[in-house]
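Continuing from the previous page of notes. For each protein in this section, the sequence appears first, followed by its structure tokens. Read the first protein now.
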Amino acid sequence: MVALGSMLFGLSACSSEEQDIEQASSGNVFVKLENVVGPSSRMTEPAKTESDATEFHNGFLIFGTPKSAIRKHYQIVSSAKEEIKSDHVVLLDDLRKGKNFEGIPGDVTNVAIVANVTEEELSAAEFQNGTIRFHNDVLNHIIQLRNQHADNMSHVALYDMKMLQAGAIKGTMSASLELKPMCARLEIAKITPGPDVVEYQVDGIYLSGFYNRMPISQISNREYWCSPDYDKEDPAAELQRFFSGYPYLANTDIKSVTETVGEGDEAKTVTAFYPETDGKVWAYPFFGESELRNDDGHYGLRLIVKVSNLKVYLKDENGDKHLHNVTQDDKDKGIPEDKAGIRYLNINGFVEEYHNTEAEPVQFYNGNVYTVQNFEITTQNLSDRIMPTDLNVNITVQVKPWTIKKVYPQI
């Protein structure tokens, strides 16, 4: 059987490399999908948990040879569609129950599924007209980041390939596939002030360096890397311009909440910032690395937090702390009012050990949720520019299966 474990981002790594194996002696292959969730609609962004499932909306079932040639293919469609008339179309419900595919050529040695792709990304017409003849043709097709964020990332693109083995039913071949999400997710639930920040306002949180598309092979292409122009003299205007094309990677739904931290004499009141809707997170889809491949050319993530109305403690040359109104200081220096007091927290690295400045940055892998922990705004990691070359701030990460990974801003 082809068993599809589709728990969201909580799937084990699966090899897609083909190997020469003995040809199948039977033309029958039994396919059954398990743990596949059907389509639904979700418009909010709650944090992902280990029990969340990726929905299966559409896809392609592909039978191939050791040399990548495609011998048979089937389009997988929702059972809500009209009666299926084509021999190359199969209902998702039929695969859930289990379906026997007869007449599969004897040189077929592997089976693959690509799911939740748009017609623009991979279409049935390309299989039918001979544009796609080899599995490598499928792997070279491009999936778009803009298609991964919809409905709280409930139907991100999925993929796996496995070799056929002798089936439990005599005269059949079988394989067990685990569909692996082809993207990852960054979650931020809360931003708090560091000990030297008295007042501040969080105006925006932006995923500011990312791949806007990726081949199904999940091998990075430098041409697909996108970011705002870090050298622009007016960072705020550049962020507005750039993210007009990527609104799902910019969050300005932000509210302030007064909280008390510490106990007894140590207790103090601080302002924390949360998503406007209670219980939600700021969430960003992105293309990480594939655990199946060595992709040394993969770029990491960049994250920018825009902050204003700052009042902070700064030390003088003697080490004494003094309260500064950053907005007023900027105005005194002749900075225009619309730019005065605006600073940017620039993050271009993530580590797994909190406050360990010597830790190596972690690699981001598809199929994981990275949750940011202890996200603090401090005077030591703010700049009046976006991504200045002389600033390198790390952030921390821990993993739970979608897989969920916790991340701590390492300041």
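Done with the first. The second protein uses the same format. Note its length before scrolling.
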Amino acid sequence: MYIKQLHIERFRNFAGTGLQFSPGINLIVGQNGQGKTNLLEAAVFLGSTKSFRTPRSAEAIGWGYESCSISGEVNDRAGPFSLGLVISPKGKQGFVHDKRVESPQDYLGRLLTITFCPQDTELVRGGPAERRALLDRHLVDQNPSLMVSLVNYGRALRAKMSLIKRGETNYRVIEPWNQVLAREMFPIFKARARFTRELTPRAASLYERFTSSPGEFFSGEYRSPVEGYSSEGEVLEALARDFSREVSTGLLRLGIHRDDLVLTLSGRGAREFSSQGQARSIVLALKLAILELIEAHRGESPIILLDDVDAELDAHRSDYFFKLMIEQGRQVIVTSTDAYHGVLKTESSVQVCEVRGGVIVPL
């Protein structure tokens, strides 16, 4: 799979521009603040309808405009197709082959991307929400219909929390939302658990290639309050029993919103004990393992988006990463301040362009 062409209108600092991509390595250079990362963000939006930089999609709308749009021509094994996305403060609307889609699952899973950016160390150093989001995003890549359960669960959780914060003590008012939570959490729990079982051995093997410390090993374990429950009915009963405690503490303890992918290095918590270099190696291992899983499941290679390669990868990791990408023939779109970064110096097939103040200049 590769993006052949990307066009954006009123997006961040781009009033309107288009860019042709090579199916191989594409290097976008420029000084900080010129808009390099905005191009990667647009590609992620086009595939997932979300940003890797902010949960508030409307922030991507250019200053003074009421909406922005992203469109692209994509090739996969089945042939070419077009995608479009319009973002406004009221929401987002997707288009496939210029036809408006009626639901997210009709749009998602068509353009697959995996991002690598400096903020990714939060997957290791941050809280469980970061790791849950990683799992969920790529589970939807594999199975877009899972988005329905994720959306329903999130809405029910927010509604229940709002009622409890307002002091609701009548369980009959809460029970309909508990029924939704109990129904939707099992498909999500099972999908996350299965994905993690497949992911962690691959990531552990990949980590060995990035670490510079002999004998150091990585592992991951999925943990959930839902473990041990075998049916929707059992969970609903447990939620009813826990209601008085939820009211008194204001905490919703039972549910997949408290799941975590616990990461360890040589048996110690990676969140507490990993160095910056180790955290970057863990992220690379996890995301490359996800890449392999998606390829095995979908038969397509996601597009690799690497932001700020200068900050993200040192020479050792950079050389290994790009050699791996070049050998496998995957499309990679990279941003950097250096047009001759690392192993890319010797690759004549790399397509290079420069971004200057929201204007793209071929080099």
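What the second structure shows: The mean pLDDT is 90. Residues 171-210 form the longest helix (40 residues). We return to this in next week's lecture.
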